[in-house]
Amino acid sequence: MVLLAAVLLATGMALPGGSASAATDARAPCRAWSSQLQPPPTIRVYRTRGPDAGTVQKVNFRRYVAVVMAAEWPASMPRETLRAGALAVKQYAWYYSVFYRGWLAPDGRCFHVMDTSIDQVYWPELRVPGRRHFEAIDASWRLSLQKPGPTGPSRLILTSYRQGLRVACGTDRDGRKLFQLSSRACGAAGLTARQILRTYYGAPLEFIDTRPHDILADGAWRGDAAILSGVAGRPRTDWRLYAATASGFRRPVKGTLRLDPELILDRGTADVTGDGMSDLVLLVRVGQRERQLIVLVASGSGYRAPRLWARWREQNAADARRLLLADFSGDGPADAGVLRGVAGSAGHRQAKLLVMPALSNRFGTQQSWWRGGFDPRFNMAHAADVTGDGRADLVVSQDRGEQGLRLWVMASRVAGGGLVSPRLWLERRGWAADSTRLIATDENRDGRTDLFAIRPRGRAGISVLALRAQPGGWFRVVPRWASPSGLALPFGRVQAAPLHVDGDGRGDLAIFRRLAGGGTALFWLRTTAGGMQPGRSLEEGALPWQRVHAY
Predict the structure, then answer these.
(1) Which residue(s) pair with 462 in the sheet?
(2) Which of 109, 178, 291, 441 could anchor a disulfide with 498, C-beta 3.0 to 4.6 Å?
(3) CA separation (Å) from 359 to 7, 215, 364?
(4) β partners of residue 104
(5) Strand order in the sheet with 393-399
(6) SS3 467
(7) pLDDT reading at 16 higher than 80
(8) Mean pLDDT value across residues 190-202
(9) Closest Cα partner for 467 from 479, 458, 476?
(10) Number of H helices and number of E strands within the chain?
(11) What's the pLDDT score for residue 317?
(12) Do 360 and 273 touch, CB atoms closer than 8 A?
């Protein structure tokens, strides 16, 4: 701080705490951005070099981050190290856009950062970002890091970084800075960007992903609810997208597929293209043995025309029962996992997970990811990053009759490429598969995917519990919401899907219920620090409940 003050005085700049009212007004443009969930559109940079030396430039924020990346993070670094660096670069500048230091240039104009290593090296006249820099920025743009305050809510942290020493991964960590040279070793060892950031910035660290389930671009990165509906035997399947608002849902955007809904074996939504919006993926049966993956890419106003992304033939017509969409490889876009039944020892059925990596406009070759003793006909499976390493794990719920329900986790390998042996994370007596619905989402935004468990509450209600993934390898059960007595929500007449209502990084729920007349209504449950709050109900009386399939 002594060095910084000396530099500012030498250049004739005003230090924070000036008394003139004119200076207060001059600082107003630098106090305009307050969001800790979305980065600013622009940043004000004081130039000390180049043709614009001595001036304050208002720079497009994404462009600023790219130029700094080109100056400070070599493109030759491992991909995951570069992604961790991109987040650190972005959030450092973002932090000082929110928490303005009161700096003024000699001409009285305010600025957030200087273009030197006092802050970040911004030299657009000489430093040109490359393809790998932009890829790293795109992969981390919707993510931010927060930590709980000592007495208040979580807040954006200052992501300082330095060159550091050429030592082993994490050896020089201090909990406050990302060190470039040793983090290179982390990336070379196969760690993901999330693992690298956890290593250097320490716990408790919250990863805020502000754009899951965003299909309809609204500028606020709110998630959207979605359903398929149709009549078996007819070559038509309708989709409806409900944009979330601050109070409920808007009337739906609608579209149609020329496809018999009976041929859809499973469906899901995830960002398979890497553009930040959730796409629709359908597992479709063609004849008895052929299987296809049909993708409808989100356009921001609906879906684009369906495209064939993968096809294969099954040996058994009953195979390929479950579609699992998640980032198994840890490269960003969601991959397609297909859980199929295979013959095991002594005639017992087993499950085999095949993963097809997302490759921009198609899914790649099937890779054997895991095989184990769970029959997919009787055990539900979910793809979820419960370990928080940036790669999807497999969660299987096993119904043991009178002994209750067990949740097993097959975690991703340390360097990826498959899953390790099953480990028991939860056992609940009194629970059963047919009275427990599980929804995967990050409920407490700690970067580990949790599960919502929806359970019956009496004859006409439901309760929602969070199964929070813990670092030690278990689920902590936390009650979050119970339907009030005046709202009829029989368990058998309710569907649920993951949602993010307000872009705060906490996982929410979209609830669909059957109306007394046979129609459909929906509302959201927004997660807060203290529980869940319901939004206003939207009624679709002409939409038959029995045809609704939420995703």
Answers:
(1) 456
(2) 441
(3) 49, 20, 6
(4) 14, 110
(5) 380-384, 393-399, 405-410, 423-428
(6) strand
(7) no
(8) 94
(9) 476
(10) 7, 33
(11) 65
(12) yes
Residue 394, both tokens: 């497999």
- Give how far Cα 429 sits from Cα of 46, 181, 401, 404, 406, Å: 63, 50, 9, 4, 9
Classified as helix, coil or strand, 97 is helix
Task: Report yes or no on whether pTM surpasses 0.85.
Answer: yes
Average pLDDT over every residue of 253-257: 97
Tens digits of residue pLDDT in 285-331: 999 899 999 999 999 999 999 999 999 998 876 666 799 999 999 99
pLDDT at res. 24: 65
Whether residue 395 contacts residue 441, with contact meaning beta carbons closer than 8 Å, is answered with: no
Q: Are residues 232 and 260 in contact, defined by beta-carbon separation less than 8 angstroms?
A: yes
Assess contact for 207 and 450: CB atoms under 8 A: no
Torsion of CA 539, 541, 544, 546, to 10 degrees: 50
DSSP assigned state of 401: G
Encode 251-264 in three state secondary structure.
CCEEEEECCCHHHE
Assess contact for 28 and 96: CB atoms under 8 A. Answer: no
Q: What value does the mean pLDDT take over residues 180-193?
A: 96
The Cα 112–Cα 137 span in angstroms is 20
* CB-based contact 446:388 (threshold 8 Å): yes
220: left (phi over 0), alpha (psi -120 to 50) or beta: alpha
Q: Is the pLDDT of residue 7 over 60?
A: no
Question: What is the distance between the alpha carbons of residues 67 and 69, in angstroms, rounded to a whole number?
Answer: 5
> From the CB of residue 138, how many other CB atoms can be counted at a distance below 10 Å?
16
Average pLDDT over residues 445-454: 95
For CA atoms 302, 306, 307, 310, the dihedral sign is: positive
Structure-token pair, residue 388 = 């928080």
Residue pair 391/385 in contact (Cβ under 8 Å)? The answer is yes
Q: Cα separation of 375 and 344, whole Å?
A: 10
The larger pLDDT score, comparing residue 151 to residue 375, is at 375
How far is 532 from 509, CA to CA, in rounded Å?
9
Amino acid in position 489: L
Alpha helices in 18-127 (DSSP H): 21-27, 61-72, 79-98
| 3-state class percentages of the chain: helix first, strand second, coil last, to nearest 5 | 20, 35, 45
- 8 Å CB contact between 324 and 337: yes
Higher pLDDT, residue 26 or 524 = 524
CA separation for the pair 223, 284 (Å, rounded): 26
The SS3 call for residue 450 is strand
Asked if residue 274 lies in contact with residue 358, where contact means CB atoms within 8 angstroms, the answer is: yes
* Predicted confidence (pLDDT) per residue in 87-102, tens digit: 999 999 999 999 999 9
3-state secondary structure 160-220: EEECCCCCCCCCCCCCCEEEHHHHHHHHHCCCCHHHHHHHHHCCCCEEEECCCCCCECCCC
Q: What is the pLDDT of residue 151?
A: 73
Phi-psi region of 337 (alpha: psi -120 to 50; beta: other; left: phi over 0): beta
Give the tens place of pLDDT for each residue, 399-432.
998 899 999 999 999 888 999 999 999 999 999 9
Which of 509, 498, 503, 499 shows the shortest CA–CA distance to 531? 509
